[in-house]
Structures are given as C-alpha cells and as structure tokens.
Design the sequence.
C-alpha cells in the first residue's frame, strides 16, 4: 500500500492511498464498506484519523486499511472520477494536496550520519566503526511540493537524499535478524542542512533542524512492497541536474543494523522514523550550495520523487 496524507481545499488532513492517478480516501472507503455490510451507519466506523494512527494501530487496523485500499482499487476501475469524488471515495491526485505521510511525528526523526563510505570520504571523514546517530525535530517536517526556506541565518544550504524507515512494531534490543519485521514501511527524506551552522555549533542538531529542513514523502510504501531496502537506486537532482546517484546497497550499516544498534537499551516506538544517511554528491563537497528558486528532486526507486523548491524566508 502506498499511503499518503492529503487535504482537499481547507479540509482536515486525511489518510489516503495513492493508486494510479487517484488518491483513495481510506476513511470514506472504510465507511462505505461498513455501510454495505450494515455494521456501521455513522461516523468514521473506527477508522484512524491519521497515517500515524494506521502505523500505530497494529494488524487489525492494517487489515481494515488493506480492505479499504482494495475496495478503492475496484471502484476506480468501475466508476467515473466525478462520481467517486462526490461520494468522497477517491480524487484525482492533481485535485488534492499531498502532505508529508507523517506530518507530525510523535518524536524527533532519528538520522544516521556518514552511512555511505563515499559520502564520509567527500566530507573528509573516516567511515565509522559504529552507526552515528542524531535527530531532527518533528517541527522541521515539510510535505512533498512544500517549499524549503532558505533561512537568513545560513549561507551554505545543502541537500541530502535519504531512504527513511518507519517503525511499525516497537521494541527494545531488537536483533538484526528480526529488525526488518519491525519496519512498517519506507519513505524519502531530504535531510536539508545548513553547513555553516553545522560547523559553527560543532554538532549536527542545530544546522539540520530549522523549519522546513525535513521534507518527507511523497508516499509511505508498506514493507511488503519493498522486501529489500538495500536494493534501491537513490538519487537527487537540482534544477534537473544530477547531483547524487547511488544505491542503498552501499550503506555501511544496512537498515536492519541501524535498527538493531539504535534499539539496544532504548525503546523504539511505532511511528518512529529513521533516515538512513545520504550518499556522496552533497553541495558542500563541490561548493554548490542551494539558492532561492532552486528545484530539488530527491528520488528513491519504488517510492517516488520528493520535490521541493527553495524560497526566501
Ligand atoms: Mn543526513
């Protein structure tokens, strides 16, 4: 399932799923199914309000979600688009606004530093012996198509395309062999960074935590559709020019090991997000920093393209 969070006009953000050129309204579809069966006549019929609640909801909620997803796919093949929109079951993707799949994470986004050898080398750093972790605050999250603000405090704005894993089943001391069973799904994060702040404050947190510095999306792909997170092409373009082009097989610490080590003595929760590091080609390596007007496209195979425009504050 390719989960999205979407909004129509000024309506509340809702959980949906991307299918062909449609956004399926999972809430509406679940209600439609329940009504057909005579089980529920009013309200949301127990369907979650957000994608995060779907992630946190466990197998019963995921079963409801899959039913709604399959119901939506059948309807899209049989019903006129206007009819589906009127019944609040599905909308053409161009008619809705996509938000980050998890627009308000429950806690900071976990991140890996220097997790590709070629990126560590271009930054003049050694490949680490153990995973290097830091976090970005939930307030930095931006949606697909949202602007990245070139805050006045930085003159060295940079990009980093990353595969992000979303935890489904929490736990502590998760062993590597079980780690991928704890993953709900995968999305893309652009770990936007102010390099000068990173240097000035001698720590990654500040320079990576400004508002809009965590574009996420466009979809959250469930793990059943991406059985091997180490088998994906990963790339980033600025104004159509390729800047980063690599493969997730090149991670120093694969996703399963990132989860194993992070969870040692520390509980991971459903909905936690782990951005797994960026490959080589960042702007800092060439002095090519981002400027207002630039269009960034971060891409991971089988997930999609996360597009953002850089704007003045
Ligand atoms: Mn990064």
Sequence:
């Amino acid at each position: 399932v390719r989960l999205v969070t979407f909004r129509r006009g000024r309506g509340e953000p809702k959980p949906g799923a991307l299918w062909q050129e449609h956004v399926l309204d999972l809430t509406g579809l679940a209600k439609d199914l329940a009504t057909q069966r005579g089980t529920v006549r009013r309200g949301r019929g127990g369907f979650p309000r957000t994608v995060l609640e779907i992630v946190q909801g466990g197998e019963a909620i995921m079963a409801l979600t899959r039913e709604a997803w399959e119901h939506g796919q059948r309807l899209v093949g049989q019903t006129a688009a206007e009819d589906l929109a009127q019944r609040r079951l599905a909308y053409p993707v161009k008619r809705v606004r996509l938000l980050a799949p998890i627009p308000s994470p429950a806690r900071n986004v976990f991140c890996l530093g220097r997790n590709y050898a070629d990126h560590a080398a271009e930054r003049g750093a050694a490949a680490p012996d153990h995973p290097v972790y830091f976090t970005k605050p939930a307030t930095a999250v931006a949606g697909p198509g949202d602007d990245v603000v070139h805050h006045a405090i930085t003159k060295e704005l940079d990009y980093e395309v990353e595969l992000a894993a979303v935890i489904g089943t929490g736990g502590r001391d998760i062993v590597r062999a079980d780690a991928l069973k704890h993953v709900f799904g995968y999305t893309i994060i652009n770990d936007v960074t102010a390099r000068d702040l990173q240097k000035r404050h001698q720590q990654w947190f500040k320079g990576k935590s400004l508002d809009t510095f965590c574009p996420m999306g466009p979809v959250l792909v469930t793990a059943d559709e991406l059985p091997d997170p180490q088998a994906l092409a990963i790339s980033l373009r600025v104004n159509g020019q390729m800047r980063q082009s690599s493969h997730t097989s090149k991670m120093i610490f694969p996703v399963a090991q990132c989860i194993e080590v992070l969870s040692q003595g520390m509980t991971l929760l459903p909905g936690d997000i782990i951005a797994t590091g960026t490959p080589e080609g960042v702007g800092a390596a060439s002095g090519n920093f981002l400027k207002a007007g630039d269009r960034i496209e971060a891409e991971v195979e089988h997930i999609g393209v996360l597009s953002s425009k850089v704007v003045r504050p």
